[in-house]
Design goal:
Elements lengths: L5 E2 L2 E2 L2 E5 L1 H19 L4 E5 L1 H5 L3 H10 L4 E4 L2 H11 L6 E4 L7 H9 L3 E4 L2 H14 L5 E6 L13 H12 L3 E7 L11 H19 L6 E4 L2 H5 L5 H12 L3 E6 L15 H10 L4 E6 L2 E5 L4 E2 L5 E2 L4 E6 L21 E4 L2 E4 L9 E4 L11 E5 L5 H8 L3 H6 L6
Parallel strand pairs: 4-5, 4-11, 5-6, 6-7, 7-8, 8-9, 9-10, 10-11
Antiparallel strand pairs: 1-2, 3-12, 12-20, 13-16, 14-15, 16-19, 17-18, 17-20
Helix pairs in contact: 1-3, 3-4, 5-6
Amino acid sequence: MCAERVLSGCVLTSWLELDEQRLVGNFGALRGVLREAAGGDAELLAVIKANAYGHGAAACARMLARGGAEWLGVTDVREGIAVRAALAGAAHARVLVMSGMSGELDEARAVVREALTPVIWAREHVAVLAEARRLEGASEPVRVHLEIDTGMARQGVASGAMLEALLGVIASGEALRLDGVFTHFASTEVAHSAQTAEQMRRFEEAIGQVAAAGLRPDWVHVGNSSFLDNGADRDALGWVRAMAERVGAKPMARAGLGLYGYLLPIEGAGADDVERARALVHSVMCWKTRVIGVREVEAGATVGYNGIFVADRAMRLALLPVGYADGLRRELSGSNARAGGWVLVRGEKAAIVGRVSMNLTVVDVSAIAGVHVGDEAVLLGDGVSADDHARIAGTIAYEILCGVRAQG
């Protein structure tokens, strides 16, 4: 675990501790699932976009590179530049810019300069990258990954005439090299999904067009953590290899949420698959703060905004210097009518009482002996998970993790 972070001589109000052994272990476990089904040369791309799902992209990039990750996925060029700088001595790691480019020439030049691998799907991307390569004086082609839209209507080019034209542009020039072809599935958390089956069919069509164009990418990749975890559809991992072999490539899959110790439930999965998934990965983040105040209140005292919690007995309350501005969701507020979230103080549960404020939260420590100012409180970690927060807040673990804005 990382030590407490200090900035400008002041103790931070909240901080993250990351377990490198767990992060690398999760990566290895997910890559093992992939390689068992898709072959020993299959690779796992570690997704660290959105600041590594709130965990800190720079720190996670270094840990994963040390743990053997050869591919890292970032949100945009800005994040890619920061990750490239953080890697320093781990230059072997490739960085895929997953959310496309703005089309600005300065951004494209940064892609070339920093040896990033951009995702493309339009002629405009080809043109701006070719110009950037010329201006930067690069001797090698810019390696790109082409995204196929198989049914999400987000990024990507659909198979058919538009893909054929784009492949022709890439093949006819010398500025770009097609390093990878991929798609993204919308419903991998559903066993035997009809939507996934249709997306696979469309991707097969696109791979056929790539082969017909005479292009030979190094990688063909699909999926996310649920794609790897969906035991009911394990044959799909072998299908990835078959798609790769059609164009002389190697198979790859992408994992994000699973790296950080969380997996979405698979709708329609059997009990054995659920138990196997639970044992596969372990949470990496521990988000902590410190108690900054302790007070006794009498029965009838109101706590926080709008008085939604009224003490029904004498209570001992602890004050924490975090709130919804830091990513501790307001939906975790606790009232007399509805229990909210909790934190861990001295290893025991302390319920949130009253409204979670912008920068402050009150918890009940009446049953926890010896709580004092300065004691650590665990906001997320073993004993209180992003799944717990998500269930109470009516959202998903992704949003909880990405919303954490701990300092340091």
